[in-house]
Amino acid sequence: MDRLRIDKWLWAARFYKTRSLAADEIGKHRVQVNGDIAKASREVKVGDLVTLRQGSITRVVNVLGLSGLRGPAPVAQELYEETPESIAAQAAARELRRMGTEPAHSLEQGRPTKRDRRQLDDAKGSGWGTRWSASIEDDKDDDG
């Protein structure tokens, strides 16, 4: 076998859990072969350069072997070799994640509930008493 579909190769090399997931990622233009956007039916051969994005990480690998069967992880790792630039980028991203997290990710909920809003207002001292509202005293222009 000298050529293999890219979705099948990505599945066999254990980049994606199923061929359907691999095909979906290819359909979202997250996989490139030799710098060109790939389709699921695109065939890869030994020596091709495959660029794929998994989450926020972009991986660049050289195809070393082809297999239509999904085997154990050590066998799958022999199908490709990651470029040194890709390994360095992954290490930098890993270090960035380790150094600090995004504050928004620590929020457990979205908007505050009514009860939370009242507690926030009470803590600030800016409850409903300091807010503007229409009242009878403001209607001095009426006929009465």
Automatic annotation (TrEMBL):
SMART domains: S4. Residues 4-65 form the RNA-binding S4 domain. PROSITE patterns: S4. The keyword DNA-binding applies. Keywords: DNA-binding, RNA-binding. Residues 92-144 are annotated as: Disordered. Belongs to the HSP15 family. This is RNA-binding S4 domain-containing protein. It comes from Variovorax humicola.
